[in-house]
Design goal:
262 residues, mainly beta, Jelly Rolls, 8-stranded antiparallel beta sheet, 5-stranded antiparallel beta sheet
């Protein structure tokens, strides 16, 4: 800190710079002229005014699942939460195998977001988390890309890295940092989507990173099962979707925050 004050006559003569009298409390800036200090402080103030609002523009975290309530979810193309298949108990969302409940979607839509969730599967089970899903088509996967949720060891999709757990389903495999927990243990998932920049995270490691707007990504889609789906990955915003693939799966600690598109 710099203390600006008048100095009693019996004190040693202070430094004078630019017509100002001041004490130096930190010796490492003792030799800096006052004009340069004022310029420095003005620059720091401007930086604070510009940078801090950008950080603050990212939204607050929003819980998508309460202890015994799934009010923020409903069935795909349905008005209400499914009457069968899905249930919530003590903050855990559970899908019973073969129960026919259908896919879940959030009631709200999200464009740029960070989604965190925990998941676990039964032996040989398959599910997934899709995002930017539109209800203008017959199925969520016709528009929304998917974070694969899978028992890699026992399900056939686990043999193909592009369809294994945490992959961008059927398009991009998880990298060498990918490590799933054993069946019955909780895995931590995270999806970050800002503009066209996409990341998949698994157990604290970023395992997929891509840009949905590049020619390279367009080639991946053109060579995949999604090639005849004109709106696949093209929606600017949409719903989060939890997939009913007929297998037993659990989700908990689901939360999301909206991101500034920057």
């Amino acid at each position: 800190m710099i203390g600006w004050s008048s100095i009693p006559k019996n004190e040693a003569r202070p430094r004078r710079r630019g017509g100002l009298t001041f004490r130096i409390r930190f010796p490492f800036i003792a030799s800096v002229p006052a004009m340069k200090l004022r310029n420095l402080f003005a620059t720091l103030a401007l930086a604070s005014a510009v940078l801090l609002p950008l950080h603050a523009a990212d939204g607050a975290w929003e819980k998508l699942l309460e202890k015994n309530s799934a009010l923020k979810w409903r069935g795909f193309k349905q008005a209400d939460f499914p009457q069968r298949g899905w249930s919530v108990n003590r903050g855990i969302l559970h899908f019973a195998k073969g129960s026919g409940g259908g896919d879940l979607v959030t009631r709200a839509e999200y464009a740029d977001f960070e989604l965190e969730f925990q998941w676990k599967v039964s032996v040989g089970a398959n599910s997934g988390v899709m995002y930017r899903v539109s209800e203008a088509y017959d199925a969520p996967w016709q528009t929304g890309p998917e974070y694969q949720v899978l028992d890699d060891a026992k399900h056939g999709d686990g043999k193909n890295p592009k369809t294994s757990a945490a992959a961008l389903y059927a398009l991009i495999a998880g990298n060498a940092d990918k490590a799933t927990k054993p069946v019955g243990k909780w895995n931590s998932g995270r999806i970050v989507l800002r503009g066209s920049h996409l990341e998949h995270w698994l157990n604290g490691k970023r395992v997929v990173e891509t840009d949905l707007a590049t020619p390279e990504f367009a080639k991946l889609v053109a060579g995949s099962k999604f090639k005849d789906m004109p709106r696949f990955t093209r929606e600017a915003s949409g719903r989060i979707c939890l997939q009913d693939h007929g297998d037993e799966v659990w989700y908990r600690q689901i939360r999301i925050r909206r991101l500034d598109p920057k």
